[in-house]
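Incident review: delayed structure delivery

Summary: a single-chain prediction request sat in the queue longer than the usual turnaround. Root cause was a stuck worker, restarted by the on-call engineer. No data loss occurred. The affected request and its eventual output are reproduced below so the record is complete for anyone auditing the incident later.

Affected input:
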Amino acid sequence: MKILYYFLFLSYVLNAQNYHYVENKNTAKEVQFYLDENARTSAGVYDGEVLLRTLWSNVEKDKGTHSIEWDGLDDEGIPVSSGNYTIKVLSNNVKYEWEGAKIGNTSKNLTGVNRYHGLSGFFKFIVHGEKIYWSNGYNEQRTAAYTSELSDPQVTTPVLDKGAIVKYIATGEDKVFWSGHDVQANKSFVFVTDQNSNEEYIFDKAISYEVTYSRTYESTLDLIEGTNSYITGLAYYNGYLYVARQLQNTIHVLSLSNGGSLVQTIQFINAPRELTTDDKGNLWLISDESSVSKYVIQENGQLEKSNLSISSLDEPLTLGFNKKDNILGVCDGGAYQQIRFFNADNGEEDAPFGELGGYANGPKVSNNKFYFSDSKSKDFNADIYTPQYNHASLAFENDGSFWVLDTGNNRMMKYDSNRNFQEKIQYTPDWLIMSIDKNNSSRLFVDFLEYEIDYSQEDIGESWSLKNNWGFSIQDDYNNSFGRIREPVTLSNGKTYFLLTEGYNFVIAELTESGIRITDKVLDGFNWVWLEDGSLVYVNPAELHGNVIWEKYELNDFDIDNDPIFLGGSLLAKRTNILANEPLFRYGSSLSVAILDDYKLLTFDARPEENNMGAGYHLGLLNTNDNTWIFKTSKATGKDYTGDYPLDGRFDTGNDVHNAGSKAMAFGNNIVWGYYGEFWKGGFQTNQYAHYWENGLLLNVFGTNWTKNVNGLSVSRLGGEVFTPFDGMAGNAINPYTVFNPLNSDIAYLYHPDESWHGGIHRWRISDLDSVKVDILSITVE
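Output delivered after worker restart:
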């Protein structure tokens, strides 16, 4: 086979600059091209628009003259037929900047150990002196106990290291008492830390207890074993610690002056849970679904019931005592969703605080509207992942100002003694389902929360505001943590719709001023994508030697209820007798669908090698006119690959990865696919993205991964510094989205969620897109 190269100047000039090729007339095997500046480059051989061979990917080349050689083979190593072909050279200097995970997080620090973050949201907090102590339940590889200074509340400090599930907190005698739960061993206990050092304080009666897969507590008190043993309330007064266990109908009284020994077991109170004490020797507790009772603390720690109880409550969730004004505060859920205030001497009620009914009135967020609870199931046994909507927290400072947990929005809200809003502390827990309205990029959704993004603000920290919480009216049948708001799109009638999980199907729902309206339009299964033009696309997962069909249901009209009406399904594309190397959607991954230039269908295989597939290509562009491949790229590394994360666009199917890719996305001429790499390199993760041009050539690979950890790579049973957040890292970023900056088409953004590394929605700034150039050389094979 003889290959003849000759120069043909066909240049896509994407920024009004030309390349100057130099034809090498001395050899038929080589052609030269010229770069006006240093650039990243990729090159491929094409038959028309079809990519036959990727020659190189993501290679830095200096300004000047460079040579290209081609051996006449395609990507499978097969000689091409005689004829005319082209080589396309892609060059660029696109920039990628991690702007942080600032959306939904108010922390002062961009990253590091002092940033608010966690797998679960805030559970409890207490104010003592000049500090806040807070917990967040289950936090996987990190501690669930923290402290913050009231003088600088947007900075937090971990207390101890990886340990038990931590929920309830009490303070006294310069000590902090934390409830601990070892869910694997069905044991609960109290551990103690010193307020000044944050190290354990060991009372005489303390014992050593090693939590399963975690640390050993040397300060353990009141260790109890049993399925229903977990702690539901803590309170301290005058040398006594009160430990409530609701499902055992007990309150244990520990005498700290006697080294933490158990001196009383109170069993006459039914189902005791939330506790607090006042400064007059009384203990207040919630003991059933709708009342709060006051007990007088005796010298021996025993409790004597007073004549005062508050029974006008709907769903009391937590208590707090205002020493300055002798007021008991109760966060009352149910129909109230308010903080209700009562005189601690006579029980007379003062004016409540918060919008009556809360989010039952609609989704709009404000600073005097609380989401303490809703009508979803309240599972008190769910101790691994903290239930989101069955608790609250309330704490007063000495001057009568107070903090309250707006549970459904995961915000600690600060108000002065006159109930004026002061500030908030907020982070985003493991809400992994994130999406952006496909026709309005200012609307970003995570879980049921909606943020508004102001693209005129350069600082991402100043660009976001929490606008709506759509979750209040959602019932259990639709409350799938991997469902939430999927595929949101504002349609031609000006109304916004999305796909909501209902069992094993999607149902179409609308976002209205009053809340979510669920239609009767049910979509079979989950393999649906909603396109910008309003069309729905359904795809069946690929299996070896099977068929894959893309069906398109075009939006036709709206009925009297504003429900969208679709035409019957039409064939968008089809692949038959699927080969092992085709880049197609498979079971166990998110579906990626996008259409470029009206006939180019984007496909992506996000899975590792399994079921005789995944060892070939992972990104593809399909011609919907004839169902042939325009390009197939992002080859698998192979199962045995153990090297660094590939920067040449390959898809890592090695390194012991389990769940590999996230999604492929298209914006303009750009394609980006994500790789979160769960269990990569034997138990870790990545946050990597490959950026392609529409012709299948690689622009760059950006992001980070576990091996770039500035805190080291050593892991112990205590978690260790290795789990400290570092620049760009995220866990299980399974739902990334890309959008252009609506004010500047030279800039795009990639948004993605985060399981627990940074506690917010991340944004990557992709700029200098006008530096992309594509030049074409003509080649003849004889």
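Verification: Residues 53 and 76 are 8 Å apart (CA to CA).
Action items: add queue-age alerting; document worker restart procedure.
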